Amino acid sequence: MTSILLFIYNFLIILFIIPASLLFLIFSGKYRKELFYGLDERFACLKNFPKQSKKVIWVHCSSLGEVRAVEPVLDALNREFFIVLTTVTKTGRDYALKTQKADFVSLLPIDLIYLMRKAFKIIKPDILILVETELWASMLYAANAAKVKVMTVNGRMSEKSFKVYKLMKFFWKHFVRYIDLVLARSKDDAARFSYLSGKNTEVYVTGNIKYDRDFMADASRPDFGLKDGDMVFTAGSTREGEEEIIAAAYNKIREKFPEIKFFLAPRHLTRINKVKKILSANKIEFSLFSRKTYDKNFILVDVFGRLQDIYSVSDICYAGGSIVNKGGQNPIEPAAYGKPVLFGMYMGNFKAEAEILLKFGGAINVFDADDIAEKTIKLLSNKKFLSETGKNAVKAVNSQRGAVNLTAQKIREYIR
């Protein structure tokens, strides 16, 4: 049955998914220039892959977020092994190359069984490590055929994702069972992976490795034209439908604090022009972050990769995608810098993190523009409350540390 399902899966990729992806790339202004980027790697032509005397760990991440999340694990392994790191996205690949945490970096080959078998023959991994929710049928099948152990670390499966996988359980149970061990972030994540594998996979709850990152910012307030006494609010990774809410909240907050500094960072930079129109419609004058002038109190972040630095110099942060039903964004990053975090009711992708922050008093739920304004004004009007909430956010993060050492220990056990 598994081989039949794999054939159908590969047939559908060739017949529909690859042509659709090519059309998307051709007609998308944002991605057109990436049409031929890393094409050799997509077809498993891993040039100059070195022969190894060390044992080989193949770590696969989806994108930049997962690459950053797994960094502490790679550091904990302390160059004991030869690390191969693959990503789905160009930004993830570029970041991995820049940080040099891995010995060999590549884009993930297209998930066709021929290409995956080719990749396994070249890399010859002793273990395949999948980060968070990376499930690829051909990859898992090829790993099993090559007798390579498979481990998922920081296993994450949101309620929304689980509904999709659950509908396709008749398919995925044949491939998820090839994962030998899942180290899950939470009990909910563990239960979902166990269900999908038909309880054929060993599952442990080890916590979220993102708590163990070294949150050290290279930025300071003067870098963004800010003074020590400025009050700074950052809305990070906002989604469609939220910018109007943030704009309305800003207009209410500046009635009380006219000089407050606001940073707005949309999740997708392709929406910048739309966001500009929203701000103009709300009579908000703004500076573009990319121009580095910061001459207005409202700054629209139109570049990628600077949000953590901005969080680190803020007083209050809002986690986007949470008032609109998009599952929320990671609240750990601003919390780790000691910033009170605001987020809406839709934190399904980061449910455990949100609950811990609320439990410790490091985060506050908000529901609309009026609520954001009211809670922000309350925090800024009471410096003791602001400080205590930020300290509680750090306490919440510190209470969850330790997953990295457990993860590294399990990897060593499995590879030896």
Main sheet specs: 7 strands, parallel
Number of strands: 14
Strand order of the largest sheet: 3-2-1-4-5-6-7
| Cα separation of the termini | 32 Å
Describe the SSE topology.
Blueprint: H1 2-27, H2 39-42, E1 56-61, H3 64-77, E2 82-87, H4 90-99, E3 104-107, H5 113-123, E4 127-131, H6 137-145, E5 149-155, H7 159-167, H8 169-176, E6 181-184, H9 187-196, E7 202-205, E8 232-238, H10 243-256, E9 261-266, H11 272-281, E10 286-288, E11 298-300, H12 307-312, E12 316-319, H13 332-336, E13 341-343, H14 351-360, E14 363-365, H15 369-381, H16 383-399, H17 403-415
Parallel strand pairs: 1-2, 1-4, 2-3, 4-5, 5-6, 6-7, 8-9, 8-12, 9-11, 10-11, 12-13, 13-14
Fold and architecture overview:
The structure is a single chain. This protein is α/β, with parallel strands linked by helices and 416 residues long. The protein folds into two domains: 38-208 and 402-415, 3-Deoxy-D-manno-octulosonic-acid transferase, N-terminal domain (Rossmann fold), CATH 3.40.50.11720; 221-399, Glycogen Phosphorylase B (Rossmann fold, 3-Layer(aba) Sandwich). Helix content is 45%, strand content 16%. It has helices at residues 2-27, 39-42, 64-77, 90-99, 113-123, 137-145, 159-167, 169-176, 187-196, 243-256, 272-281, 307-312, 332-336, 351-360, 369-381, 383-399, 403-415, and strands at residues 56-61, 82-87, 104-107, 127-131, 149-155, 181-184, 202-205, 232-238, 261-266, 286-288, 298-300, 316-319, 341-343, 363-365. The strands form two sheets. The chain has a seven-stranded parallel sheet with strand order 3-2-1-4-5-6-7, sandwiched between helices. Strand 2, helix 4 and strand 3 form a beta-alpha-beta unit. Helix 3 (64-77) packs parallel to helix 4, helix 3 packs across helix 17 and helix 10 (243-256) runs parallel beside helix 15. It is globular and about 65 Å long. It starts with a helix and ends with a helix. 44% of the residues are buried.
